[in-house]
Design a protein that fits this description.
The complex is a heterodimer of chains A (153) and B (850). Chain A is α+β, with helices and mostly antiparallel strands. Chain A has 5 helices and 10 strands; from the N terminus they run αβββββαβββαββαα. Chain B has 27 helices and 35 strands. Classes of the chains: A alpha+beta (153), B alpha+beta (850).
């Protein structure tokens, strides 16, 4: 594929902020966006697991993205939004501070992670877009959910 | 129509359709063994079922087809011709099935043409066979109803008086009796109902706030209907396991006739409910296992009588819920598995080499019967013994996350144990509250509820820091769920005690409150949470919230040492004494001073009274002739003069055929009491003091006296070994046992390092001290013997070091667990000769291996 063609291919990203960092998830990964309510915490689970909740009859495992990325939680301490994703037949909800708009971005403009990117971010980042005034980190869903393995490593 | 027959027709129809598809795939991809095994299995199942139903014609036909396919499986090249032949056989089978449905019996006729060609092809293996009928056109012509025309030679054709009808009609008629609904549909229905329940609950909540609402009555009705709907949908998924057993009595009866055996089938727990999907998946494996028991397990009546068993064999089928699983057992009282033959067969079929098998236990070897293509039956019968079955049994069960185990005793029978998780099942659960969170505990595990504290009849008591509850005549170990779940410090004196059965043990889980019971649908745990052993799943409650389901087994593990040590809930005697962790029978005696002395009774071999005149003195030692040997006599207190007349009571301690006698003044009593020794007697020969029956008592260190008497003969007996003393690491948290056992092991010619905990033991390994053998207590705080054994194996320097476990109580379960953990041997705590023998054996083995 030539560079020109690559530039013409565009992907839509659901954007969100958490701990004041802008992130994007390819829209096809996102099932829904919801306000998490009645979160049940799970004793003995790691800090990344915020708990489990019932979303229309499905059990959703809520991931505390701030803890997952070792980012500082916002002052109120309660991420108000969740992004629903599915992986391996299971439902997950990424708890984030706020969900933004959907952006259409050209694949060709996606840049590899800067070498000095925070390791914890680099681990789950699939690249970076330079937007006006800020950077958007594209999340790699599978790596975000790869919780068990990392803990073991 | 006979229900069995109807089921058979529906199932076989489906199987045949799949065979059609698979066969075509196979022709295109003849090297794909998976497809072939699948086809083979399908045909095998059809054949088996035909056999039970007495459908001889179908059975012969499928048998011939199966034989040919067996050749393919053994490597015969697959030709298009052969596939066509099998396809035409399948068409013929379909034709017979259609008639069967119309007339409820097989139409007479023989399929010699097809059978002949099938077996000819099977015999000639790869050689092309002469075409008798053009293979391109199936010899039985078109399937289904056309059969009647295609086989005019068959006399009394029953179908001829039945009007011709399209094949599809058959399916229609069956459909009117029952319909098959996919589990996906039921799942979706379930989800929708859950949503409905949530909405209903919200509405109820709103109406509750508006007293004079017009909605009240209709909403009440909506509520009831919703509940019924919910129940109905749940019920669609649940069926008693008896449904899967229905066919078995007939199968067994027919097998009896065929094999000329006498077999009784016992069924227990048929009412145990399980999810329909699970039920479907265990049906075939169960049938296979029962057939296997009948065919291979149970002997012929003659053999049974010769072996002194009742003429009639028994196959016992049982099902029960156990700790979040359904356990199905199929046990026969037959001849048991022939380990020797399985071993030979495993080598013969290349499943394992001679060397691989050398280190395996009989139980491991028995598991080879689950390997694909494995069969020890000398003859291939039409019931089983074709090497399909056991591997399929296992893969079917593993598919639903279950396990299948077998245990076999020669001459006594074989038991298969199938354990299936309840993942999809609905169970009744107790919803409890602790630290403000709710949890569900499967009701099957709950024995009773007890309110503790608050001035009630039951009180939480403590032994050291271990909480216990006196419940009737048992002492129940307790744990606080709040602490198990790391939700903070619990109020240690009040709460509700949920008495749970965990395996064979009973424990009490203390919670803050018990809310209600509810039928819950178990949803699998998120993959990110599955490592948390204390939970087995999640569920959505009626009010829509998600809660965790407690796994009683996981909680039992959390109890850890306490469970191990105290679970054998010590029966309290009538007296007022409180039982504690280690009760020991003590022999109380007086020797020298007036202060009572005691030794643990199990250490004492015998109590004797000897005539003082028989005491001889040799080399300054007191000796007595005792049971044909000279036994050294020792005094506990100093060396005052011996009595010269009358009788002298002695305590005899024996080890390896050698004995010593400890001279005492008087034997006072035998008491059962706990041994809470305050170490620091300060004097050799005294371990310390303990309060026994209210009197301060010296606990005598037998270990101190043994080497005194044995010293010279150990050197004498093992002169060669003295130089190459092997190093033993003794791990025991109790100083009493350390002090008692260390001298004993030393006396047997070993160097002993004694440490008080698993951590110290690991440190000893890591510090580089050479250690040849480990003797460890099982029940220790923090790191128990099992954990230590596992930890030791991961220390490179410790590789291959034999580990001997000391157990207060040795149950089969402990031994099994110990094997897995890596123990080489088990010795009961007071079995001193056993311990020394085990040490000798293990160190000898280690030397041989080195």
């Amino acid at each position: 594929m030539s560079v020109m063609e690559a530039n013409r291919n565009e992907t839509e990203y659901v954007t969100f902020t958490t701990a004041r960092q802008l992130f994007g998830l390819p829209i096809e990964c996102v099932q829904d966006v919801f306000k998490p309510s009645r979160l049940t915490r799970v004793p003995l689970a790691g800090p990344e697991i915020a708990g489990v909740l019932n979303l229309r009859g499905r059990i959703v495992t809520a991931i505390n993205l701030n803890n997952r990325l070792d980012l500082k939680t916002a002052a109120d301490g309660k991420p108000p939004m969740a992004i629903g994703i599915e992986s391996g037949g299971e439902s997950f909800g990424l708890l984030v501070d706020a969900v933004g708009e959907v952006l259409k971005l050209a694949d060709g403009e996606r840049e590899p992670n800067p070498v000095n990117l925070d390791r914890r971010l680099a681990r789950i980042s699939a690249g970076v877009f330079r937007l006006d005034g800020q950077l958007l980190v594209v999340l790699d869903v599978e790596r975000v959910l790869d919780i068990g393995l990392e803990a073991a490593a | 129509m006979d229900e069995l027959l109807r089921d058979f027709l529906t199932e076989t129809g489906e199987s045949l359709d799949r065979v059609d598809v698979e066969l075509v795939r196979f022709e295109q991809d003849p090297n794909n063994a998976a497809i072939l095994i699948n086809i083979f299995r399908l045909v095998h199942t059809i054949k088996g079922t035909c056999g039970f139903l007495g459908l001889a014609r179908l059975e012969r036909l499928t048998h011939a087809a199966e034989t040919l396919m067996g050749k393919f499986r053994d490597g015969m090249p697959v030709t298009g011709e052969a596939v066509s032949l099998i396809l035409s056989t399948i068409d013929r089978i379909k034709g017979i099935l259609d008639e069967l449905e119309t007339n409820q019996q097989e139409s007479p006729g023989d399929d010699a043409d097809l059978i002949g060609r099938l077996s000819q092809m099977a015999q000639h293996a790869a050689a092309p066979i002469p075409e008798q009928v053009p293979a391109a056109a199936p010899p039985a012509a078109a399937p289904a109803a056309v059969e009647a025309d295609a086989a005019p030679a068959e006399p009394d054709k029953a179908a001829s008086d039945a009007p011709e009808r399209p094949a599809g009609e058959a399916a229609d008629r069956l459909a009117s009796h029952s319909i098959r609904v996919s589990v996906d549909t039921l799942d979706r229905l379930m989800t929708t109902v859950s949503e409905l329940v949530l909405t209903r609950n919200q509405l109820l909540e709103i109406v509750r706030r508006h007293d004079d609402s017009d909605f009240k009555v209709p909403l009440q009705r909506l509520s009831n209907v919703t509940a019924e709907l919910q129940e109905g949908v749940m019920k669609t998924r649940m069926q008693p396991i008896g449904n899967a057993w229905q066919k078995l009595p007939r199968i067994v009866r027919d097998l009896c006739a065929e094999l000329d055996k006498d077999i009784e089938l016992e069924m227990h727990g048929a009412e145990t409910e399980l999810d329909r999907q699970v039920l479907e998946l265990v049906r075939d494996p169960l049938t296979h296992l029962v057939r296997n028991c009948a065919d291979h397990g149970i002997e012929s009546p003659q053999e049974r009588i010769a072996a002194g068993k009742p003429r009639s064999g028994t196959i016992r089928l049982s099902a029960c819920h156990e700790g979040g699983h359904i356990i199905i057992r199929i046990a026969d009282d037959g001849r048991g598995l022939d380990v020797g033959r399985i071993r030979a067969k495993a080598i013969e079929t290349g499943l394992a080499g001679e060397a691989d098998l050398a280190g395996k236990t009989d139980a491991d070897i028995c598991n080879f019967i689950f390997a694909p293509g494995f069969s020890t039956a000398a003859e291939v019968t039409s019931i089983s013994g074709r090497g399909v079955g056991m591997d399929v049994v296992r893969s079917n069960i593993e598919q639903i996350g279950g396990t299948v185990d077998l245990s076999s005793a020669p001459g006594a029978g074989t038991t298969f144990t199938i354990k299936i998780p309840l993942t999809l099942a609905i169970v009744s659960a107790l919803v409890v509250e602790t630290a403000g969170e709710r949890f569900a505990i499967p009701q099957v595990a709950v024995l009773e509820l007890v309110r503790a504290g608050g001035g009630g009849e039951h009180r939480i008591e403590r032994i050291k820091n271990t909480p216990v509850l006196r419940l009737r005549n048992r002492l129940l170990p307790l744990l606080y769920l709040r602490e198990v779940f790391a939700l903070g410090e619990a109020d240690r004196d009040t709460g509700f005690v949920v008495v749970m059965q965990v395996g064979s043990q009973v424990l009490g889980a203390v919670v803050d409150g018990v809310l209600h019971t509810e039928e819950i649908v178990i949803k699998p745990m998120s993959s990110k949470l599955r490592h948390i052993a204390v939970f087995s799943g999640t569920t959505i409650l009626g009010d829509g919230s998600v809660i965790m389901i407690v796994d009683p087994n996981g909680v039992g593990q959390a109890l850890g040492r306490a469970v191990q040590g105290q679970m054998e809930a010590i029966e309290l005697t009538q007296s007022e004494e409180i039982a504690v962790d280690e009760k020991v029978a003590l022999l109380v005696f007086r020797a020298g001073s007036q202060r009572p002395k005691a030794v643990p009774l199990p250490l004492v071999t015998r109590l004797e009274e000897i005539d003082c005149r028989r005491i001889e003195i040799s080399d300054g030692r007191h000796l007595v002739q005792y049971r044909g040997q000279l036994m050294p006599l020792l005094r506990i207190d100093g060396d005052g003069a011996l009595k010269s007349e009358g009788t002298q009571p002695i305590l005899v301690f024996s080890d390896h055929g050698r004995s010593i006698g400890l001279l005492v003044d008087e034997i006072v009593d035998i008491v059962e009491d706990r041994l809470d020794i305050e170490v620091g007697g300060g004097r050799p020969g005294v371990l310390g003091f303990a309060v026994v029956k209210g009197a301060t008592t010296e606990i005598v260190d037998v270990g101190h006296f043994l080497p005194q008497a044995f010293e010279d003969w150990f050197h004498h007996r093992n002169p060669a070994k003295a130089g190459a003393a092997r190093r033993v690491l003794l791990v025991d948290d109790s100083p009493f046992f350390r002090d008692m056992l260390a001298p004993l092991i030393k006396a047997a010619g070993y160097q002993v390092t004694a440490v008080g905990s698993g951590e110290d033991a690991l440190a000893a390994f890591k510090s580089g001290n050479p250690i040849d053998l480990v003797v460890t207590d099982i029940e220790m705080p923090d790191m128990d013997g099992f954990a230590l054994a596992q930890a030791i194996q991961s220390v490179p320097a410790a590789a291959g070091v034999p580990i001997i476990a000391l157990a207060a109580m040795v149950s089969d379960e402990t031994i099994e667990r110990g094997r897995t953990a890596g123990f080489n041997d088990f010795v009961a705590k007071f079995d001193r000769p056993g311990l020394i023998a085990a040490i000798k054996e293990q160190s000898a083995e280690a030397t041989r291996a080195a």
